[in-house]
Each structure stands twice: as structure tokens, then as C-alpha cells.
Design goal:
Layout (H helix, E strand, L loop, with lengths): L6 E10 L2 E11 L4 E5 L6 H8 L7 E6 L2 E2 L5 H9 L1 E4 L11 H12 L4 H14 L15 H12 L6 E5 L7 H18 L2 E6 L2 H7 L2 E6 L2 E6 L1 H5 L4 H8 L10
Parallel strand pairs: 3-8, 3-9, 6-7, 7-8
Antiparallel strand pairs: 1-2, 1-4, 4-5, 9-10
Bound molecules: adenosine-5'-triphosphate.
Length: 253
């Protein structure tokens, strides 16, 4: 196993002013596996993801991509690391003025140095891989939210990254479309062998796609384990999150 695509979060600590958001988080996403970080609103999931992309710099601790700590890299070195990571944004974040095909082709045009014909071929293949054969000519405004998410995944795999980062991939989708996106995440793992870090508050989705679930609560890892272990957890915080009860240790205000 090459160490290239492991992702390790090491004692990650971050405060904003007096608010301690991450209080020394540590876990590893082994190569080719999917780890889902789950937690309620405001528990620091997005802050964690921003550190993985180094859009934020940690107060303490580091993120290791393929064993390499990234917090002290120069921006040029970080650009290289980012080329190995694909990001699936929450709202797909497509360019509205570009066709779906051009959206998927965009990272290749920016970074690959390939010729136009090859770029178009790869972009078409990627659209096909996410179940969108023959719709590349459409504009983002002409397609549904579920289709946009698929295009976001097709774009994220353009440069064949070893690591995929998903920000709330099922948010805003109905249960059927959510299942379809989950199936796609499983397909990316099995067909491309990618290492995946997923940020989510969708417990059902986490149970479907995760090799391991990390439950983030008040800046620490409250619980972690396989979906079966989390499902069997007796921790009152975890139980309340799974059941969605308003009564319990989690404050609803
Ligand atoms: N740049 C920032 N400056 C100050 N506070 C911030 C900043 N970014 C995040 N926070 C605070 O950190 C806390 C965690 O935010 P974060 O966005 O990571 O939550 P989350 O778990 O992703 O929630 P949600 O599911 O609602 O997106 C929040 O209280 C937020 O206000």
C-alpha cells in the first residue's frame, strides 16, 4: 500500500477568539477507505474540512496528506498537494456560464496540459461515470440539484485525485436522490479506489457509506467506530443524534 493517499488529522486544535471549536482532534482515513465526520450544526465540521484544504491554519496540530504535514508548506507546495485532492462542494459550486461538460473539463484545462480533444474525452467519460451520459451540453440552470451534485463529483475526479473530500453531499436532496448520491460515493471508492473524507449531518447516509464514523461534539470526538458500532452506541449524545429526539444532552437552542 502506498502511503500517498492516507489522510491523518493530528491533534487539530482551533479557536476563534475565545471560542474553542476544535480541541485536539486526531484520526486517520486509511488509503481507499471512507470516513464520515458527523455532527450537529456548529460542531466544527466545516472548520475541520477547511484545515484539510489548508484554507485555515491550525493553532496546534497538523493534517498529514500521504504522511506529509501541510500546515507549514509554502503556497506552491500546497498547490501540488491540492492537485491530489478532489473537492465536492455542498452546493456543487458549478460555473453558471459554462455547460456541464465545460465545468467538468475546467480543472483539466487549468492543470493537465492535455490537448483539447483529450480533455473533452476525459470530461465525457467522467460525466458517464456519474450517470450523466450525453447531457454535457446542458447548462447548470437547466438541470436539477441532484444532477448538479453528480456534475460536482465528475469535476472533482477530473484530475484522478487519490483523495476525495465531500462537504455535506446529501444536504438538500430528497431521500431517493440522497441514496443515489450515496451509491455514487460507494462507486467512486470501489472503482477509483479513492480515500474519502465526508462531512455530514445525515446519519442515514453515514451508515450507508462509511467504513468508519467520527462523531464530533463540542470540539472533541465523542464517539467513533464502524456504522454497526455507532448504531449500537449507548452514549446518550450519539443516541439522541441518531433518534433526532429533542430531549437529551444535546441542546436544541
Ligand atoms: N472564520 C470564522 N471566524 C469565527 N468563527 C468561526 C469561523 N468559522 C467558523 N466559526 C465558528 O466555528 C463554529 C463551528 O462552525 P462550523 O461551520 O465548522 O460548524 P459545522 O459543524 O460545519 O456546522 P453546520 O452543519 O451548521 O455547517 C461555529 O460556532 C462558527 O460560528
Amino acid at each position: 500500500m502506498s502511503p500517498g493517499n492516507n489522510l491523518t488529522i493530528e491533534n487539530l486544535t482551533k479557536s476563534f477568539g475565545r471560542q474553542k471549536v476544535l480541541k485536539g482532534i486526531s484520526f486517520t482515513v486509511p488509503e481507499g477507505e471512507t470516513v464520515v465526520v458527523i455532527g450537529g450544526s456548529g460542531q466544527g465540521k466545516s472548520v475541520l474540512l477547511k484545515h484539510v484544504m489548508r484554507l485555515l491554519v491550525a493553532d496546534e496540530g497538523d493534517v498529514l496528506v500521504g504522511g506529509q504535514p501541510i500546515m507549514k508548506l509554502t503556497s506552491r507546495e500546497m498547490d501540488e498537494v491540492r492537485k491530489g485532492m478532489g473537492m465536492v462542494f455542498q452546493e456543487a459550486a458549478l460555473f453558471d456560464s459554462m455547460s456541464l461538460l465545460e465545468n467538468v473539463a475546467f480543472p483539466l484545462r487549468m492543470h493537465s496540459g492535455l490537448r483539447d480533444r483529450e480533455i473533452i474525452k476525459i470530461a465525457e467519460e467522467n460525466l458517464e461515470r456519474v450517470g450523466l451520459r450525453g447531457v454535457g451540453g446542458k447548462m447548470p440552470s437547466e438541470v436539477s440539484g441532484g444532477m448538479k451534485k453528480r456534475v460536482g463529483i465528475a469535476r472533482a475526479i477530473s484530475m484522478r485525485p487519490g483523495i476525495l473530500l465531500y462537504d455535506e453531499p446529501t444536504t438538500g436532496l430528497d431521500p431517493v436522490l440522497s441514496s443515489a448520491i450515496d451509491e455514487l460515493i460507494l462507486k467512486m471508492r470501489s472503482e477509483l479506489g479513492v480515500t474519502s473524507l465526508v462531512i455530514s449531518h445525515d446519519m442515514k447516509s453515514a451508515f450507508r457509506i462509511a467504513d468508519k464514523i467520527i462523531f464530533l461534539y463540542q470540539g472533541v470526538i465523542q464517539a467513533s467506530g464502524t456504522p454497526a458500532e455507532i448504531q449500537a452506541s449507548k452514549d446518550p449524545v450519539v443516541r439522541q443524534f441518531i433518534s433526532g429526539d429533542t430531549v437529551g444532552p444535546i441542546s436544541v437552542i
